[in-house]
Specification:
Layout lengths: L4 H20 L9 H9 L9 H6 L15 H16 L1 H8 L2 H32 L16 H28 L4 H11 L2 H12 L1 H23 L1 E8 L1 E4 L2 E4 L2 E7 L6 H19 L10 H10 L5 H22 L2 H10 L2 E2 L7 H36 L9 H26 L6
Antiparallel strand pairs: 1-4, 1-5, 2-3
Subcellular location: Cell membrane; Membrane
Membrane topology: Multi-pass membrane protein
InterPro entries: SecY, SecY/SEC61-alpha, SecY_CS, SecY_dom_sf
Amino acid sequence: MFQSPDLRRKILFTLGIIAIYRIGAFIPAPGVSYDGVQRCLALGNTEGGAYAFVNMFSGGAMLQVSVFALGIMPYITAAIITQLLRVVIPRFEALQREGAQGQAKLTQYTRYLTIAIGTLNATVLVTMARSGALLGCQPGEIIPDDSLPVILLMIVVMVTGVTLIMWLGEQITERGIGNGMSILIFVAIAAGFPSSMREIWDVQGWRIFTVVLVIGIILVGAIVFVEQSQRRVPVQYAKKQIGRRTVGGTSTYIPIKVNMAGVIPVIFSSSVLMLPSVLMQFNQPAPGEEPSAVMNWFSIYFGQGDHPVYMATFFLLTMGFTYFYVSITFNPNEVAENMRKYGGFIPGIRAGKPTESYLSYVISRITFPGALYLGFIALIPLIAFVLIGADQNFPFGGTSILIMVGVGLTTVKQMNAQLEQHNYEGLLR
C-alpha cells in the first residue's frame, strides 16, 4: 500500500492527525493542576463509575482533565440525535432525501448540536472536577483557583477542543483515508488497550492474561464473521423497451446484515444505565444522614455491573434498542416503493404491499439473532468482571471491540478500493 504515492500520502496525513489528537489528550486544561490530577488518579477511585464509559471514548483524556477531555462523545451524541429526529421532524427526512446538498445541511445541524452538547458536558465536567467528585479527591485539589474567569476559560477551551476534534475528523475524511470520526473513535479506544492488558498481567498473572488474549482473538474472529454476515434478498428488474434499446432485465439483491444496528444499541443502553450512577453522584447524603430508599435501591441493583438485575436490564435494553434502531433506519415501505417505481420485484412476491410485508418479515427474523449477538457482546466485560475480577473496561468486549472491529473492516475496504483503482490488486492478495 506504500507503493502507491496517493495512498501513502493519505496514510501519513492520517497518522499525523492521530498524533495531534493523542497529544491533545494529555495537555491539561488551563487552571488544572497536573500534579493534583496525578495524585487523585493514583488513589484509584475512578474504576467504573458513571464516567468510565465516556472516558473510554475520550482515550483517557477526560480523567486527565485535558483540553480534549470531552473527546468525540458530544459529536456521537449529536449525530445519533440528528438521526433520530428524522423520524419526528419531516424537514430532516426531506433533507436526507435531497442527496449531497441535504446531507451537508444535516452535517451543519450536527455541528451546531455538538457545540451545544459540548458546552453542557464541559460545564458538568468542570463542576465535578471543582468539587472533587470526578476523581474522588478533595475540593480544590484539581482546580486550585475556582474563580469565575478561570471556570469560564476552562469551559471555553474544552468546547473549543470538541470543535477541533470535529475538524480533525473531517480532515481525515477529506484528505486522509476517509471515515475520519470513526478513525478517531478507534484510536481513543485502542489507546486504552495496552494499560488494560498490562493491568490484567500485573493483577491476575500470566495465565489469566493468556486466557484473556486467546478469548479476545476468538471473539474478534466471531465478530468479524457476524459483521460480514448478511441475508441477500434477490431482486429482479423487468425488461423495458425504450426506443430501439432494451434496458433492465438485470438481477441483483438487497443485502440485509445480521447486525444492521451496529454499535448504536449498546451505546444507547450504556447511556441509560449511566443515569442511576449520575443520580447517586449528585445525591450524596450529608455526613451522618442515611441515604434515601430510592438511592439505596439504585446502589444495590445498579451501583455495580456485576449484579444480575443490572446484567439482565443491560441485555434487555440492548435487544430493545436494536429493534428500535433497525425500525427507524430500514423502511420496508420505502424500499418496496422504490422497487416498484423502477420495475423491480422479488421473485415469487408481488410488487407493492406484499413486498413490504415480506421485507418486514425478513427484517424481524434476522434482527432477532442480531439483537442476541449484541446483547451477549455487551455483557462480556461484566461477565469477565465476575469471573476473573477484571476491570469493567475489559478490552475484548462491549462497545470497544464492536467499534474497533467495525472501523477496522471499513478502513480495510476503503484502502482496498483505493488500491484497486491504481493497481487492480487489492490490499489482501
